[in-house]
Amino acid sequence: MIDPSRTVALVGRPNVGKSRLFNRLCGKRMSIVHDMPGVTRDLISTEVRDDYVLLDTGGIGMEIEMTSKKISVAAEEQVEFAIQAASVILFVVDVREGITTLDEIVAQKLRRYGKHVLLVTNKVDLEENEEAADEFISLGLGEPLRVSAEHGRGIAELETAIDEKLGPKPEGSEADQSQRIRISLLGRPNVGKSSIGNRLLNSTRLIVSDVPGTTRDSVELDLDYKHKDGELLKFRLADTAGLRMKRKVDSPVEYFSSVRTQAAMERSDVVFLVIDAVDGVTKQDQALAGEILDAGRALIIVVNKWDLIIDRWTHDPIEGFKNLKHFLKSYEESLRKEMFFLPNPPVLFVSARTGFEIESMLNVAAAMQATLDMKLPTGKLNNVIQNLFEARAPKIIGTKRFKVFYAVQTGSRPLRIRFFCNRIERLDPGYRRYLEKAIIHEFRLNGCPVRFDLVGKE
Ligand code: GDP
Ligand code: GDP
């Protein structure tokens, strides 16, 4: 995953040599536009030495017919974008042209901005051109770096300067794949949470151990589950005290707002939302599902007491259904409709009474672990988003449409995607939901919420 604090952007007016420099820095001779397209062709990005993201903003705002006025508007847009997206900005100028008005406009914007700017005078092809670069000191952005993108002069020095500005790469914040999957059982009173908990704990495939240091009020248990294929799956079940104590709480409102539910949710990677098969989805189930989603937790819906449905079916098959499987399918469909706001979570039909499908819960949670730590490759993510925009264009708001220049995953659990866009308010809620759903579908993130973080003009 790319650390967004390690982003370097190239800005400067057309023809100063930004794309040449881009290719020089990423060590590729040819233009790599097609290897890693941005959301629009406006922005070109690549990862350099597995260390930082390099952006060429040169295409932003550019049209086929460019007047000088349009060029200066585009240049300003590019600089604004770079200021938002990048931690280091390479401001490229052409030593042979000298300082132009547009350079001055750009320099003025950059001076006002506190981040790191490197002034790069390009096309210093020969030693005798070096002195000509002195003129650029008057832009007020420090000593110019003298380079020739074409011939490779001064590139090593430029790379060192970039490294200095970026600082050392932070040490592995990567999630530990072997860590325990933290799970909890949440649901209205009497849906069968304790019964499921006890069933799980009594499974012969489980080795259960107390987690040292947990208090009587918030007991956690480590569960080592031997999967049929020999793999050992490791879980940590939160709030078993709550399950055991079985305090009666009369009002459901009281239950939901309970500190206990919140705490269990906070300590979970995956929440099993238990509902009662006979009651179906109630308002309270929906409210709780909403809270789990807001907390950014992955969730699995567990429809418990399925034995009662099987019993009923055996005595009195429900009319209009061919068989129980057919009924289950339709049950699941209507459940999904009532939980439409969720990120298409897995749905399991279980019975704590008979033990039916109880262990599947652990298998499905384990499968989710990989999803939780998924890294969306930046190139693919941008392709997917580009396709989504082509399949359905956002509405025009004001005079223009919402547009994403570039997207990058910036976090996990919950998965976060940062969008560098034109104007934040142009993303309407309907289009946001469309993007969320489609990204969940495309990357098979079922049950895992996705958060968007928009960077652009307010
Ligand atoms: P951009 O519009 O800023 O991306 O500029 P380009 O990278 O497309 O370069 C514009 C023109 O300048 C091209 O014809 C390049 O070959 C040329 N150019 C780029 N860098 C240098 C350089 O260091 N020296 C010389 N002489 N020409 C260069
Ligand atoms: P909790 O309040 O969510 O922890 O629910 P409990 O585990 O205490 O269960 C509430 C009631 O539902 C008890 O009477 C259980 O025996 C019953 N129950 C739980 N699971 C099942 C099940 O799978 N099938 C049936 N028929 N009853 C169940």
Task: Describe this protein's structure.
Helix 2 packs parallel to helix 3. Strand 17 (415-423), helix 14 (429-442) and strand 18 (450-457) form a beta-alpha-beta unit. The protein is of the alpha/beta class and 458 residues long. It is 34% helix and 22% strand. The strands form four sheets. Strands 8-9-10-7-11-12-13 form a seven-stranded mixed beta sheet, sandwiched between helices. It has a six-stranded mixed beta sheet with strand order 2-3-1-4-5-6, with helices on both faces. Strands 16-17-18 form a three-stranded mixed beta sheet, with helices on both faces. It is built from 14 helices and 18 strands. Mean pLDDT is 85; it is low at 29-40, 173-177 and 245-257. The longest helix has 18 residues, at 68-85. Bound molecules: guanosine-5'-diphosphate (2 copies). One guanosine-5'-diphosphate binds next to helix 5 and helix 10. It comes from Thalassobacterium sedimentorum. GTP 2 binds at residues 187-194, 239-243, 304-307. GTP 1 binds at residues 12-19, 56-60, 122-125.
List the helices and strands and how they pair.
Elements: E1 7-11, H1 18-25, E2 44-48, E3 52-56, H2 68-85, E4 88-94, H3 101-111, E5 116-122, E6 145-146, H4 155-166, E7 181-187, H5 193-201, E8 206-210, E9 221-226, E10 232-237, H6 240-245, H7 252-256, H8 259-266, E11 270-276, H9 283-294, E12 298-304, H10 306-315, H11 324-338, E13 347-349, H12 360-372, H13 378-391, E14 396-397, E15 400-401, E16 404-411, E17 415-423, H14 429-442, E18 450-457
Parallel strand pairs: 1-3, 1-4, 4-5, 5-6, 7-10, 7-11, 11-12, 12-13, 17-18
Antiparallel strand pairs: 2-3, 8-9, 9-10, 14-15, 16-17
Helix pairs in contact: 2-3
Bound molecules: guanosine-5'-diphosphate (GDP) (2 copies).
